[in-house]
Amino acid sequence: MASKRYATVDKRICVACGACENICPLGAIKVHKGCFAKVAQDKCVGCGKCEKVCPANSITMESRVNI
Amino acid sequence: MRKGLPGKQYYNGKQGEHMKTKKKHWYDYLWIWSIVYFALGFFNILFAWLGMVDFLLPLILAAFGGNKFFCNHLCGRGQLYCKLGGDLKCSRNKPTPKWMASKWFRYGFLIFFLAMFGNMVFQTYLVASGSENLREAIKLFWTFRIPWGWTYSGSIFPDWVAQFSFGFYSLMLTSLLIGLIVMIFFKPRTWCAFCPMGTMTQAICKLRNRKAISDK
């Protein structure tokens, strides 16, 4: 069973700094090829730490549609 | 806390895996290097040349590796901001203003930064060619000249080597201060949103990996 929320990244404004990757307790968010961060939705528990730390405001938490 | 989570998937089976991802690496301590670098500049300005590593390594990793491993793991400055703004709570932790992380501002700042870098190289050339004398001062925010003469009293190198050191250290210190200011007002790593190195390496990565990311 998955969490209620998960993180999503706006690729267009992500600066690929890796702040989210370093704070994620589950290793669920990684910078993809130096271009933008990518979330492994099955691993993400929706804690929101990455959203708080993102300097470009590119991460938002969303509700899972079908749990 | 989270009732919806059965222990199975996130706690039991994968616990070992979590521990592994949070293992400390030697490069998690590079924030110390950042402090050491700026401290050395107060004793002998020629140490400023060491900063070229922070300048070239990200570009090399981006150009040949196609990644931002430098920004993500090796940037001592980013780690320092995390320590000061995050762990020591010296940041208001407010969202970065939108314009500050926008493409226009990022690329505008990059161009400005490169222009200032070019100007610094030109000053070095003028000293090397003998048409200008070495100025033992650093310039903060490209405006305020601060005497810095105690850090240099001649060396085996020609004058232009020292001139470059003063110029480069000015650039590094100025950008550190800008980063600290935005760290206090916004998020710890707000500097990363418009860091010229970050913009440059991301642009290189996007260009290099354009095929791989276009079908995603």
How helical, in percent, are the residues of chain A? 10-25%
Poorly predicted residue ranges of chain A: none
Count of discrete alpha- or pi-helical segments spanning 4 or more residues of chain B: 11
**Rounded radius of gyration of chain A (Å):** 11 Å
In terms of DSSP E residues, the strand content of chain A is: 25-35%
Order of helices and strands of chain A: EHEEHE
> What best-fitting shape of chain A do the alpha-carbon axes yield?
globular
Q: What is the count of distinct domains of chain B?
A: 1
Biggest interface and which pair forms it?
A-B, 29 and 48 residues
Oligomeric nature of the chains: heterodimer
Instruction: Report the portion of residues of chain B in β strands.
Output: under 5%
Poorly predicted regions of chain B are 5-16
Question: For the terminal residues of chain B, how far apart are their CA atoms?
Answer: 35 Å
Task: Report the mean per-residue pLDDT of chain A as an integer.
Answer: 91
How many DSSP-defined strands of chain B?
2
DSSP strand count of chain A: 4
Strand order of the largest sheet of chain A: 1-4
Would you list the SSEs of chain B in sequence order as H and E? Answer: HHHHHHHEEHHHH
Helical residues, percent of chain B = 55-70%
